Amino acid sequence: MRGRELRDPAATGAPAGAPVLEIRGVTKSYGDHPVLRGIDLAVGEHQAFALIGASGSGKSTLLRCIDLLEEIDDGDIFLDGEPITVPGMNPVPVRRRLGLVFQSFNLFPHLRVIDNVTLGATRAQKVPAAEARRAALELLTRFGLESRAREYPDKLSGGQQQRVAIARAMLTRPRALLLDEVTSALDPELVGDVLDLIRELKAEGMTMILATHEMSFARDVADQICFLEDGRIIEQGTPEQILTEPREPATQRFLSRLLHANRL
Amino acid sequence: MSTEYQLTTREDRVQSRRRRRRRDILISAVATVVVVGGLVARVVTASGWNSFRETFLSATWFVKSIGGVASGFWLDVRMFLIVEVCVLALSLMIALVRTFEYPLLYPVRLLATVFVDVMRGIPTILLIYLVGFGVPALNLKGVPSAPVFLGEAALAMNYAGFVSEVLRAGLMSIHPSQGQAALALGLTPAQTLRDVIIPQAVRRVVPPLLNDFIALQKDVALISILGPQEVFRTAQIFQEANFNYTPLIAACALYLCVTVPMTRFVDRLQWRTVRQRGAVLALGPR
Questions:
Q1: CA atoms of A37 and B281, how far apart (whole Å)
Q2: By the 8 A CB rule, do A208 and A177 touch?
Q3: Which of A219, A224, A241, B91, by CA, is between 20 and 30 Å from B254?
């Protein structure tokens, strides 16, 4: 059993200067199949961390564990120095402080774009409807989507849908944004707009963890890149270091395969 | 020897299409006249036709009975509306309990499963009869013994068995990622159900739901076996007093006035769903 003092913010020296998100020794299996085998990570204010690695390496599962959509088996996750993975804790208030964007958008097909964006604010944050609407329109305008506000999501292109999904996550003013391969389901010509948007959010100081297959994007936007394999962080460093002079053989193998596939 | 082919002009194609259309219309007209005319001729030339017309299709008795029959029908309409609301509420509860597994609700889920199986397995008329005569015999405190109420209750339970399964299929057809997206936004599980899952599920099963409600409209008449003077019973009283069956035909006419528009509406709704899903329809010859 892990020490109680670990879960006590005072004993961790938090919250002053504490990382926005801290992950310590997190493990997770589905049945007999271990997906995360002990992840340690600390993401500071305004930092962007990119998780790279092959499909099945645990990137998505880690993001889902952080947003408490999956229960972890062991370890701790701290948000602003406060443990959020205490058994029996209500996950709802924690999820309200984080934003998660999915690979497949997961917009609500029965709601118009504007209502997709305001649902979280009006229901979870109890923001008055008119105020949420105003804020949502402002955000959609910024994302170049104001003309689509009254449409249903299935009338939009994939790139537009994903930008709506990002707007939906942003309207609740999350402490950190978790982006789960947000461009993997998009046609190549639609990827650019979504990546530009994320760059912009990063420039404004949004703290984020992004699982991605876009190495050039990770290089641009991330302060740190973590290479995952089989549920472990094999190597972590600056984009320069990881992408140009990886130390670990596993990282080298992964990158050379990408290079071979012309994806670097 | 070379053959000179004449090239088809646009005009030729238009002409040919027009000829084909004309031929199709002619064939369907002739077929309709032959089939319908043949049936009518057989009925009209039957030896009992004249007395049948007197006892079943008498204009006089139709006019005389239509007022009374219509007031009976009004009771059916009211019973239908009440039962429909109860069915919707009851089946949504059953569907939710059976779809989402809360440990606290385990006994309720077990009960709901048994309820659905039993209700779907008993003939409607038997259930109405048993509830209508069984509950008053029990003499339960606080339970009204009015036949209309008991008939409505029996019918609502019977239909809830079917409708809850329709709703459950709708709930299960919503991809789990929808629920996760709602939870990730910070919605509570209850809000997720109310704002995201249930609206989508219900939309998806509207045509089969409406089908069940068309059936319910008609089955309301079964409550007559408990005695309330709804449309069937009223028409029957007329018939027994006057030895004329026309009031029953009047009752049918009233039913058709309600069920046919509703059926058409549901059909159109189903077609629209098919078209929206982009299904290619290839029916009949060109």
A1: 52
A2: yes
A3: B91
Structure tokens at A150: 């009254």
Q: In which domain, by residue range, is A220 found?
A: 21-108+177-263
Beta strand pairing call for A82-83 and A74-79: antiparallel
Distance from C-alpha of A233 to C-alpha of A36, rounded to nearest angstrom:
9
Q: CA nearest B269: which of B212, B204, B217? A: B204
Within 8 A of B177 by CB-CB distance, chain A residues are 102, 104, 106
CB contact under 8 A, B184 and A100: yes
Total domain count, chain A: 1
Contact yes or no for A119 and B187 at CB 8 A:
yes
DSSP A74-127: EEEEEETTEE---TT--HHHHHHTEEEE-TT----TTS-HHHHHHHHHHHTS--
The three-class DSSP label of residue A51 is: strand
Question: Residue A37: helix, strand or coil by DSSP?
Answer: strand
* Domain of residue A202, CATH code: 3.40.50.300
Q: Per-residue pLDDT tens for B158-182? A: 999 999 999 999 999 999 999 999 9
Residue A154 lies in a domain: no
Q: Closest residue of A to B191, CA-based?
A: A123
Residue of B184, B188, B195 lying closest to A67 (CB–CB) = B184
With respect to residue A163, please indicate whether it lies within any of the assigned structural domains.
no
Strand order in the sheet with A224-229: A98-101, A176-180, A208-211, A48-52, A224-229, A232-237
CA distance A96 to A122: 12
The stretch B49-67 carries a mean pLDDT of: 89
Strand order from edge to edge, sheet including A74-79 = A33-43, A21-30, A74-79, A82-83
Average pLDDT over residues A165-191: 91
DSSP for A114-144 reads HHHHHHHHHHTS---HHHHHHHHHHHHHHTT
Kindly state the tokens that stand for B57.
Answer: 């299709």
CB–CB contact B180 A106 (8 Å): yes
| ipTM confidence score | 0.89
